[in-house]
Each structure stands twice: as structure tokens, then as C-alpha cells.
Amino acid sequence: MFPAWGFPLAVIATCAGIYFLPSPIDPEPFVFEKPPPALVGSLQVNKKLQSGQRIFMGQLKGPESFTVDDEGNLYTGTVDGKLWMISGDQLHFITQMGQNMPECGTPDYEPICGRPHGVRVDQDGNLIVADSYFGLYKVNPRTGEKTLLLSSEQGVDGIPFKFLNGLEISKNNLIYFTDSSSKWERRHHKYEVIETNHLGRLLTYDPVTRTARTVLSGLYMANGITLSPFEDYILIAETSICRIIRYWVSGANAGEKEVFVDNLPGYPDNIRLSKKGLYRVGISTTRFPSFFSPFLDALGPYPFLKKFIAKVTPLSFYSIFLHKHGLFLEINDKGDIVESFHDPDGSVTWTVSDVFEHNGKVYLG
């Protein structure tokens, strides 16, 4: 017969065992100073994204970012480590960033297959690619030949890359890019968000001198970036704390950074400049007001709870907290949200990485 004290003892033993288990994360407290913004005015929920359509279904797996060449060909990289060219209604394979295996496209094989994130065309018509695992590359879009500019192992300023992400090229061909974390790889990005560390960097690479340097460090999951029309500042998405900062490249404020917009209604990904001069921001996961605080808002001040949850739950578990609601924002040069585009039930898309405009169409990653 099971003794009456047996169950409490088992519970105590289980809790003690969990307490002494090492946690995969070492979180810091972070407090969102405001609740998520109300969904009114420019944030009013609508169905604008539901007028879109999916293209190349089953072929393009998780396209992250887009760029275009002088001939109007689109380029993108996918979660299975592949680079693609879209020419009209035709899809052309360019190259595999790592090894091409049947398992490519699954998290465990990303370090083997590669994961191209930021993609841009340079002045010579080559693709510049930030691969999250392997480093910064130049790729010939016609032949698929890859030239490694900076390896992740080499890194910059003695710090290896762990998660290369956003990319932008200035008019003088200077390459800006982000390393989201010096600790967590892309496949563990959920730990990066939960941990709320500030181990991200904005970096530059000069293809003429073949030198790189750190521009900014201490960023919260540095993600998408874009230069202003006059290239006097650069915007950087800090995904894990739902804000965008501005770093002044030139002018009287050169070298200074400031908050451009914070308390966003979601976790920002890529930032792109539209033909209207507005900044379009893809939202990877929404952060909406409700009766209860959003999961990460509530956990933010309590590192102990974060550690505990990371001990007892697999990474895939956190997906149950994701609200399947597609969203991107249009923001003016003052940091005001002027319009939002929604897919409230995620029927066309429920996560938006990139918002790229070309020939009167808007392509969503």
C-alpha cells in the first residue's frame, strides 16, 4: 500500500531534482515599461493581407529576405540553406550554402545545410549573403560560385559569429550586417528571445580593404536593418524587446544611437524602405493586449521562472504561445506607426519576416 506521505515526498523530490538541473539559459530581468499598444487607429485589425496569394508553395521553404537585380530578377534564401532566383513566374536554384541533404530544412541540420538570411545585390551584380551559420559571402547569381568574405569562426574583433542575420549595402558599397547573438545559434533563437540578453552587434565590412569592424554592441537580438534615404542613419530591429533603434552614421549626431520606436505590437524582423518613403517592418510574432499580459512580458522580470521553464520544456513547446496573426507595419521617419496590414487568422501568412516592394507588388517573407 502506498503510504500517505509518499506522494508529497515524491513531489518534493521531483521539485528538488528540477531545481538542481542545469538550465540551458542564463536570463536577465527585463521589464516592458508599457503594456502592448491598443489595436486602434493605425493599428486597427483588418484583413488587408488576406487579399494576397501564396506563390511557389512547397518549393520556397521559409524565404527570409528579398532583393532584386537591374534586370528585375528577385533573389531569396530559404530555411533549407538554398539560394533562389525568381524570374517572372519561374523559380531557379542558384546554390546551396552548405551541404545539400534530404534533412535540410529541419533545425538540427541547419548548421550543416546553412541558412541564408540577409540577401542584397552589390554594385557588381553579385549577391551578398549573410548565412546564419557559415558567415558573410559573395555569390555569383549566374554560376552559384560562393566566395567567403568573413567566416563565422573568424568573426570580428575577436568574437566569432553565432547568428548572422540582417544585411544592408550602402551607396558606396559598404556592407552593414548584424550578428543577433554571440551565444545562441539561429536554431536556438527562442532561447535568445527568452533570455533577453544583449549580445547582438551591428558590424560593417569594406570589400575594398577587406576589413570589418564592430559599429555597435550590446544590442538585444539585433535583427533587420535599413539605411535612411540619405544614408545618414541606420535603423536596427531589436527583436527580443520589441523596439527599433536609430544609429546616426553621419551628420551632427554621428556615432550616437537612440530609440526610434518602442513598445511595438510584436517582435520586429526585417525593415525595408518603401517607395512612399515609409519603413515597412515585418512582425515575426504579435504582442497584442489581452486580459493577461503576453507570455514574455509576464516572464520578463523573473529570471528564475525563465530558467525553470527552459529546464522542463522543449523548444518546440513555446510555439503554443504564438498567436497566428500575420502583421506588418508602416512607420514614418518620426517613428510613428501610420498603417498596419493584418491577416487575423493567418490564412495567408501568420508570420512576416520581410516586406519587399518590386514592380508594384509587395513580397512577404
Concise synopsis of the structure shown:
By secondary structure, this protein is mainly β.
Secondary structure elements and pairings:
Blueprint: H1 6-20, E1 66-68, E2 74-77, E3 82-87, E4 90-96, H2 110-113, E5 116-121, E6 127-131, E7 135-139, E8 146-151, E9 164-169, E10 175-179, H3 189-195, E11 200-206, E12 211-219, E13 222-227, E14 233-238, E15 243-248, E16 257-261, E17 266-273, E18 279-286, H4 295-299, H5 303-312, E19 326-331, E20 337-343, E21 355-358, E22 361-364
Antiparallel strand pairs: 1-2, 2-3, 3-4, 5-6, 6-7, 7-8, 9-10, 10-11, 11-12, 13-14, 14-15, 15-16, 17-18, 18-19, 19-20, 21-22
General description of the model:
Belongs to the strictosidine synthase family. This protein is mainly β. Helices cover 11% and strands 35% of the residues. The protein has helices spanning 6-20, 110-113, 189-195, 295-299, 303-312, and strands at 66-68, 74-77, 82-87, 90-96, 116-121, 127-131, 135-139, 146-151, 164-169, 175-179, 200-206, 211-219, 222-227, 233-238, 243-248, 257-261, 266-273, 279-286, 326-331, 337-343, 355-358, 361-364. Strands 1-2-3-4 form a 4-stranded antiparallel sheet, with no helix packed on it. The longest helix has 15 residues, at 6-20. It is globular, with a radius of gyration of 21 Å. It starts with 5 loop residues before the first helix and ends with a strand.
